Amino acid sequence: MNRSHLTVPPAGTPVPEPHPDAPLGEPLGPHYSRCFGCGPGHPTGLHLEAVSEDGLGVSAKFTVGDLHQGAPGLAHGGVLATAMDEALGMVVWLLRKPYVTGRLETDYLLPVPVGTTLFIRTRCTGVVGRKAYLEAEARMDALDGPVAVRAAALFVEVPVAHFERHGDGVGGMDGTDGTDGTGGGAHGGADTGRRVNP
Ligand SMILES: CCCCCCCC(=O)SCCNC(=O)CCNC(=O)[C@H](O)C(C)(C)COP(=O)(O)OP(=O)(O)OC[C@H]1O[C@@H](n2cnc3c(N)ncnc32)[C@H](O)[C@@H]1OP(=O)(O)O
């Protein structure tokens, strides 16, 4: 894909192992029930489902629905970028540290009709300090289907205070809806509980 140097790790950058508590080959579940990308409680969200893979990678699925259109019958490009962002974010989730998307680069190779299930595979290509380098590929209707979208990203590790300072904190970032009085609503993989922070 076309990508800038900002999403390519320096040569020889190591790829860390997932956190020992990160699930392997299991459904990851939502990190927040109202998340637009993965939350089952979001009425018009993507409801993306994902499973961790060997190493630092994730396999995810998202079916383009009526509410995701740009042109009639076709997925909106921003929605597709969101699906890639979400699947990429699930990779850094396996490190059990809070990250946010700093940069997202997307190549659209094929139009994606409503009803298509995108099979998205994402992986980490290296971590340097607070910076995690990631890439993703989405194929249409099968793991070996035609490639519709490619993406590369730089995620930046942030303190939990990021979500308190800029959002409603991290309450609810354990897959719940955050209506327990602890807040909720921040997006980006932070969690003081079982998901991100050990
Ligand atoms: C499971 C969870 C799934 C979640 C999936 C979805 C994820 C999301 O949608 S997250 C929400 C969208 N993203 C955001 O809201 C982030 C908004 N941006 C910010 O908060 C800040 O700009 C932030 C945190 C990225 C960086 O700010 P700050 O903490 O001050 O770090 P800063 O010192 O500027 O940068 C750290 C390093 O990253 C680099 N960097 C930061 N931003 C970028 C960028 N856009 N492009 C390239 N490099 C960048 C810097 O150059 C620096 O590199 P180096 O260490 O080599 O000098």
Would you mind describing this structure in some detail?
The chain has two helices and six strands. It is an alpha+beta fold. It has a domain of 134 residues: Roll (Thiol Ester Dehydrase, Chain A). It has a six-stranded antiparallel β-sheet, with helices on one face. The longest helix is centred in the middle third of the chain and has 17 residues. The C terminus is likely disordered. It binds octanoyl-coenzyme A (CO8). The site of octanoyl-coenzyme A has 21 residues, from helix 1, strand 3 and strand 6.
Write the layout of secondary structure elements.
Blueprint: E1 49-53, E2 57-63, H1 77-93, E3 99-108, E4 117-128, E5 131-140, E6 147-157, H2 161-166
Antiparallel strand pairs: 1-2, 2-4, 3-6, 4-5, 5-6
The protein binds octanoyl-coenzyme A.
Secondary structure category: alpha+beta
Q: How helix-rich are the residues, as a percent range? A: 10-25%
Indicate the radius of gyration in whole angstroms: 16 Å
Spatial order of the strands in the main sheet?
1-2-4-5-6-3
Q: What profile does the largest beta sheet have? A: 6 strands, antiparallel
Pfam families: 4HBT (PF03061)
Region (Disordered): 1-26, 167-198
GO molecular function: hydrolase activity
Main location: membrane
Give a quick rundown of the structure.
Residues 73-139 form the Thioesterase domain. The protein has 198 residues and is α+β, with helices and mostly antiparallel strands. It has helices at residues 77-93, 161-166, and strands at residues 49-53, 57-63, 99-108, 117-128, 131-140, 147-157.
